[in-house]
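Could you help me review a protein record that somebody else here produced? My question to you is simply how this chain folds and whether the tokens agree. Thanks in advance; the entry in question is below:
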Amino acid sequence: MPNALKCFDRTIARTGKSSPSTGKIARIVLLAGLMATASACTSLGASGPSGSAVRKSADQPVGDARIRIVPLTDAVARRVLASRAASSFSETLGEGVAVGNIVGKGDVLDISVWESPPAVLFGSSAVEARLSSAGSLRSTAIPEQMVDDAGRIIVPFVGQVMAAGRSTRAIEAEIVSRLAGKAHEPQAVVRVTRNASANVTVVGDVASSARVPLTVRGERLLDVIAGAGGVRQPVGKTTIQVSRRGQTFAMPLEAIIRDPRQNVRMQPEDVITAYFQPYSFVAMGATGANAEVPFESTGITLAQALGRIGGIRDDRANPKGVFIFRLEDPAALDPALVAGSPTTPDGKIPVIYNVNLADPASFFVAQGFSIHNGDVVYASSAPIADLQKFVNIVSSMAFSIVGITNVVQ
């Protein structure tokens, strides 16, 4: 403080216009201003908490959870990447099997029975009979039948046959077996004409919501979406959700198209939902731009995110104090860190990843650390930046008082 006053006296003296009384008044005004500024130096304008304040938040409660400060290392980045890879359709849903030839309740079956001449059982006109072009076999077309709620159908001269949960080949074999001794060299053909049980429901941002039947071909995810007319939103901003047996999994549509392994085979009663989901993260603090920044559904890395916001400001930012605020999936964290950590209502753990950009190795880590939707990337101000602000305030105040004294004179 004395040094500031001496500097001020020299500044007043150089003007050559000050009187003793004016100089005394100016000194009092400056002293009061410096005292007020010093008392509020910790409240200088800032874009957010300092790096040390963020690190101390590890002991501060956030709702029912405590923040975890995790230094971003290569091992941490690999663990986060592995947790995201495990949520792919190929891992969670599996390849599946073609189920279109499995008969279910409500399916409509077309049954034909063939008998070699001399026809014994089906030679009458009780059912529609016709000779083959060779005249050696006689076929009988039985009216279409719907599998009842008990899973059965009725075949003349055979009786009730269990159909639900069986393949058409198994039903044919049972019919032939039960006709043995009644018909002459019987043969049977069973065909599903209307599929009511093996369907996939497609809803959401598609051209037309529909129930798409599954066949022996074994329709895959993209086949079913195409059967509903495709998606209405851009591929890069569309997420596909698959619900199966009470569980729900989601992936970006663009990632499914790029990786054929994710185009998994669909199973009966799957529900596919296509929804528009623009991804974004928020940049705050001493960054090149403070804004909400959109990115592709396939994701971007921390290095790419920093590039899109113009990096951190070299005149303000603390390179050791770059943080990523995230509600993290416990599977992406070290079990030792998860143990005893309260979670948010949706099962997430508040985590702050700390990046030290002063370390050259951190730029390689940043290339492998993915940014999630809703992340907050924050760059804290360097301590010297607050000192510079204080110096600027004092300097501005001193020269303002000099101008005032000149006017008074």
User: Anything to note?
Assistant: The two ends are 26 Å apart (CA to CA). The chain has four domains: 2-46+401-408, 51-84+279-385, 89-97+200-276, 108-194. Residues 2-46+401-408 form one domain. Confidence is low (pLDDT under 50) at residues 38-43, 124-134.
